[in-house]
Amino acid sequence: MDGFTPWPPEFAARYEAEGHWGRDLLGDVPGGAPGRTALVAGDTRLTYAELDLRVRRAADGLTALGLRRGDRVIVQLPNSAGFAVVFLALVRSGIVPVLALPAHRAGEIRELCALTDARGYFMSETDGDFDVRRLARSLPVDHVVVDGDAGEFTTLADVEAAGRADSVPERPEPGDVAVLLLSGGTTGSPKLIPRTHRDYVYNLRASAEVCGFGRDTVYLAALPAAHNFALACPGILGALHRGGTVVMVPTTSPAETFPLIERERVTVSALVPPAALLWARAAARTRHDLASLRLVQVGGARLAPEHAATVPRALGCALQQVFGMAEGLLNFTRPDDPPHLVEGTQGRPLSPADEICVVDPGGAPVPPGEVGELLTRGPYTLRGYYRAPEHNARAFTPDGFFRTGDLVRRLPSGHLVVEGRTKEQINRGGEKFAAAELEGHLLAHPAVRDAAVVGLPDPVLGERTCAFLVPRDGTPPPALAAIKEFLRGRGVAAFKFPDRIEAVGSFPLTGVGKVDKNGLAARLR
């Protein structure tokens, strides 16, 4: 695929020789017995045989639409049976899903279409009060497929009905790009992460092994399925690979998840820190039986040690900290780790082939235990963002190490403690976005002359977003409600909206003339 940076041949040969890479394809991952329950979503219950039948028909129906191996399509579906069927049918056919979040709006979706030359858009019938159909009509794609009432568009049911179960689609190669994941990014434009069949299968397979997934696993997918964490760490795909059951729900709210845990005897779920704290508080007063829970994974943002100690006690299960990135590298605390490592670290690398460097601002390795930027490369860490050569020149070292932008300490045990970020990225409750992206939208407001966005520490969300605004001469500063309405009109996802607005006359500058964001944040502290 154009715009994809492959692993150098000597690394590919090594990963194959060491057994990390095989010939398995992402669409063939489900591995449960035909009669076992594979998927539960709302009123839908599918055995492995029923899921496979729907996927085979959908894959052939996509071909009947005119989609072909290597085509890119935008997938914006909630946690549902439709997501699982569409995703597996696409990757089985070699059609590349570009995974958008349900919270994304017109601005983000149009950018993804332009970046990928997308030929299709897969969407849900509704998303609250957001008019998805109006957006779909404005997109430059050949096909719109709706999971639900389609109006003038094609339904997913139509696609499945048009497909033959005995048809054999064109098979992708293990080295082909299987899926494009969205990076949190640190620039104003979206960055897409190409994951191949062989590296992503290894990602989910090795994760499932470390986490002890098996046929008795019942995995509750409550975080968005388009997130790498919920999809393949080990997530939905890891549970299906091991023959377990996946229960999908579009929210982490205890009001909806706790009844499902009781009814389906859920054994494991993945949460971001704010949701984990919410579950811990709600568990004390719930009437639902949560005794089936054996493991809760927490990642997406750092979990404070004091919370890491209280969450598992409140839920009556084990805690696993997970620190990783859609770009690749994953770190897990292990079941046999002592409590001080489970509570005080973000885990150690998944793979023996993961290479880790912790360096100072000049690129020199720091002494063990000291803070530095995390660099990494390995069999499931990308070698370049999709169609981003200029950014790749900055994001990777000449010898292929990815500059993560995370500040960490590495302990003698190999466990990492995350200490912060070098890049200007906001991590609000596990949803990551670039400060520069929001600044660009704010600068378009007629009353704003300049804007600087910073993240402020928050005990629940990890970070809240504060926008410092310099109003135009003679113009009163816009209120927070007005800014949110302005951003909504520009098609910006709500999780990127500022939580706080501060009007200032000018920005403090660093010695080299850049906006001193640390100085701005210090004003509020």
Automatic annotation (TrEMBL):
Enzyme class: ligase
Protein's UniProt keywords contain Electron transport: no
AMP-dependent synthetase/ligase domain sequence ranges: 33-386
An example molecular function term from Gene Ontology annotations: acid-thiol ligase activity
Keywords of this entry: Ligase
Pfam families, sorted: AMP-binding (PF00501), AMP-binding_C (PF13193)
Coiled coil listed as a keyword: no
EC number: 6.3.2.-
All copies of domain AMP-binding enzyme C-terminal, residue ranges: 437-514
SUPFAM superfamilies, per database record: Acetyl-CoA synthetase-like
Domain of life of the organism encoding this protein: Bacteria
Name of the molecule in the record: 2,3-dihydroxybenzoate-AMP ligase
Top-level taxonomy: Bacteria, Bacillati, Actinomycetota, Actinomycetes, Streptosporangiales
Gene name of this polypeptide: dhbE_2
